[in-house]
Amino acid sequence: MLLEVIVQTVEEAIEAERLGADRLELVSGIGEGGLTPSYGTIKQVLKSVSIPVQIMIRPHSYHFHYSSSDLDTMYEDVNNIISLGGTGIVFGALHKDNTINEEALKNIIQLSPELDITFHRAFDEVSSQEAAYLILNRFKQNVRRILTSGGKANCEDGKNSLKRLVDLSDRLQGPKILPGSGLTSTNIEWIHQAVGAEQYHFGKSLRTDQSFAKGFDKLAFDKIIKFKSSQ
């Protein structure tokens, strides 16, 4: 079982790795659901940790159907990451009818064949997650995982949908399902039993008082690590 943890700063990235995270999602503006971090933050984090770093590419939090200028900004941000030696990004774009924007995804992939893409929770806004998964499966060489709560508010509510997506992923050998939203050190065991994913995404539940303004809750972190080690 792989543990991905949200971080916003160099200090958080170093601490999360020390506490046992397997992979980081680097964002800014977590209060808006996560936005593209600054060039300087990306540079410092990439040179400060040894575990994989998936970097959010999201210029605003208004919606997931981006204008041409939004997309140009996103492509430039990806080029900056590539120039720093990064390969991991977190990206998602939809059309106004909430279908996958394949053209934007193709344009992102064309920037570098080495890109490791997490398609983010824009996936939770599509009308049919199975249909959307089949589209993303065409890009599985680069789209390695899909961050989702199963189309629901959190993973508890979406556990049945998540299980179906995990089964679909296993059957097609496509992008892995990365459950995220509402996961805690107290519910991960039964959610894992219900869903059976290979990796999970944690945010505020690993923070003191569930606040991103505070440091990591080491007891909660340790509990997750112990459970992970038992699998």
Helical residue percent? 25-40%
- Give me the strand/helix succession: EHEHEHEHEHEHEHEH
Radius of gyration: 17 Å
End-to-end gap: 7 Å
Overall 3D shape: globular
β content, as a range? 15-25%
Strand count, sense and barrel status of the largest sheet are:
8 strands, parallel
Mean of residue pLDDT?
97
Secondary structure tally, helices: 8
Strand order of the largest sheet: 7-6-5-4-3-2-1-8
- Indicate the low-confidence ranges by residue numbers: none
- Structural class by helix and strand composition: alpha/beta
**Overall number of strands:** 8
General description of the model:
The protein is α/β, with parallel strands linked by helices and 231 residues long. It has helices at residues 10-19, 39-48, 68-83, 102-110, 129-137, 159-172, 188-195, 218-230, and strands at residues 2-7, 23-26, 53-56, 88-91, 116-119, 143-148, 176-179, 199-202. 39% of the residues lie in helices and 16% in strands. The chain has an 8-stranded parallel beta sheet.
Could you give the topology of this structure?
Blueprint: E1 2-7, H1 10-19, E2 23-26, H2 39-48, E3 53-56, H3 68-83, E4 88-91, H4 102-110, E5 116-119, H5 129-137, E6 143-148, H6 159-172, E7 176-179, H7 188-195, E8 199-202, H8 218-230
Helix pairs in contact: 1-2, 5-6
